[in-house]
Amino acid sequence: MPEAVIVSAARSPIGRAFKGSLKDLRADDLTATIIQTALAKVPELDPKDIDDLMLGCGLPGGEQGNNLGRIIAVQMGMDHLPGCTVTRYCSSSLQTSRMALHAIKAGEGDVFISAGVEMVSRFTKGNSDSLPDTHNPLFAEAEARTAARAEESGASWHDPREDGIVPDAYISMGQTAENLARSKGVTRQEMDEFGVRSQNLAEEALKNGFWEREITPVTTPTARSSPRTTARARASRWRAWRA
Questions:
Q1: Which portions of the chain have biased composition (kind: Basic residues) (predicted)?
Q2: From CA 216, how far away is CA 212, in angstroms rounded?
Q3: Cα–Cα distance between 202 and 196 in angstroms, integer?
């Protein structure tokens, strides 16, 4: 059975949704830039040898719809390259890496691009979950139960299945976190301390140049003559949080 290894990686800077430095970038343009950067690190690779482009996208609709994986392949001039778009919300690109691993292990191919993108700032153009009246009525009572619980403070939580009722499949991650905190006894203080520690470690890694090997500067539509990375702006945000 063949082994699978990651031979090149690249990432974009991260900006603030709707008002950050990347808010005017399209998801396909950004993703194409990052993929091309990763490929440039392996000059001996013939693009014709790539078997598939697997793109993870949390909410693949609007500008991020129409099988964005294939759109990006053609955009990069790789018309020969098939592409697929996978959603598993926050772990969508992890899923594409898993799929690429499985494909290599199964002997289905030798070279795969595993990528991921989610441009929240572009959700104003629509997303896969934005259409009204699309939820299954089966979950109506469960959604009402979630809404009522969100108004409560300190209420305990247990699995609705224990009461023989349907859980809320449409529940948001924010409310899920609230329920888990109540179920596991995690306090707000503990969560804040963990969050601040994480941000401080990320800031230190940025200062030490750890991210320089991965973060790729991108050109924003409003500053075509001055390509820049938003890493510094993001660091300022970390300092504000720490304060």
A1: 234-243
A2: 8
A3: 10
Q: Is 31 exposed, middle or buried (0-12, 13-18, 19+ CB in 10 A)?
A: buried
Query: 129 near 61, Cβ under 8 Å?
Result: yes
Contact between 213 and 229 under an 8 Å Cβ cutoff? The reply is no
pLDDT tens digits, 110-130:
999 999 999 999 999 999 998
* Domain chopping of the chain, boundaries: 1-130, 137-190
Q: What number does CATH give the domain 1-130? A: 3.40.47.10
Q: How far apart are CA 168 and CA 171, in angstroms?
A: 6
- The parts of the chain modelled with pLDDT lower than 50 are 225, 231-233, 235-236, 238, 240-243
Q: H-type helices in the chain, by residue range?
A: 27-40, 68-75, 92-105, 140-150, 173-184, 188-207, 231-242
> What's at 153, amino acid-wise?
S
What whole-number distance in Å separates Cα of residue 75 and Cα of residue 1? 34
CB of 218 closer than 8 Å to CB of 29: no
Tokens 């320089």 -> residue: 212
